[in-house]
Amino acid sequence: MTQLVLIDALNLIRRLYAVQERPYLPLPDQLNASTRQQIVQNTWNALEKALLAIVHSCQPSHLLVVFDSNEPTWRHQLYPAYKANRSPMPELLQSAMAELCQRIEGMGIQHFNLPGFEADDIIASLATTMRQHQQQVTIVSTDKGYLSLLDSGVAIYDHFRREYLSEDAVVEKFGLPSHRLIRYWSLVGDNTNNISGVPGIGPKTALELLQLGDTFNDILQHPDCPKTMKHKLIEHKADILTFMQLFQPRCDVETGLNLQQLRYLKTAPPSAGVSDG
To answer: How many domains is the chain partitioned into structurally?
Structure first.
């Protein structure tokens, strides 16, 4: 059976890079060439090791490393504050990205990005299509935004913890199942993505409201919904709908990819390293 493994590239690479950069912090404005090269080399070594470990753990028949768009996406157009609080990619990592991608290709692994879309939209679209054809899909990421896909039978693997995420773990952490997370986050917001949520509604209140119905209309019509909460939900209805769009991975992106292109055919070779040139 097909086993498609989709790796959220920057979710993996930026964490690996941060570990390699840490011994050299605080970085001066101008790094000498040897220090730059050492950090990049260490990042590649860690990335290659991680990819080999993922292949070993997930046993893909098909494999793709997916990057975010280099330009603003539809989410930024919909909500200009989206991720505005995030630090930009470190210049050193940005300058090394083309070489890292080349090395990934050298391992027999395809990589992909699509202008205007984040990795989660591409990954969710490919995963959904595959699940509709009853094929196995594993997403490798620590981004909680993928958790809503668990309900469709997609597996989610945390490489750093070496474990698959489960519905039980979602319920234990958030207090509700994966298919209700989008509504939950639209109420409480998310600092990571600079999404404010509804003022005055925290996790406890959000859970209480979501016990009253599966949709916000159900909640508003429920006799146990407090009047103050009804007013909040009505007042911020437009914001809530926007937040739901932001949190929901797109599943309709036309990637132009076919399954044959993603076949993982060869075992990764021993590291060639990043050139010292």
So the answer is: 1
